[in-house]
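Hi V.,

You were right to ask for the full record rather than a summary. Here it is.
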Amino acid sequence: MIKAVIFDLDGVLVDATEWHYNALNKALHIFGYEITRDEHLSVYNGLPTRKKLELLSSQKSLPVSLHSFINEMKQAYTVRMIESECTPISRNS
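Predicted structure:
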C-alpha cells in the first residue's frame, strides 16, 4: 500500500541544476554547440528544454531542425545522470 507520494519540483529535495547543464551540453556538443556554466545559470536555468533550444536558436543560430533530436538526447542523458548520480541517503535518527 502506498502511504505517501513525494514530488520534487527540482531544487526542493534534489538540486539537479548540474545534471541539466551537463546533459544539455552533451547533447549540444554533438553538433558543435555549447553554453557556459554562467550562461546556464543566468539565462537557461529553470527553463524547459524546448524553451532553452528556442533561445539557443535566436542567440547562437542553432538550427530549429535540430530541436527535436537534441531534446530527445538531452532527456536521455538526464535520465542516465539521475540513475547514476541520484542516490538516497539514509539517516538514522
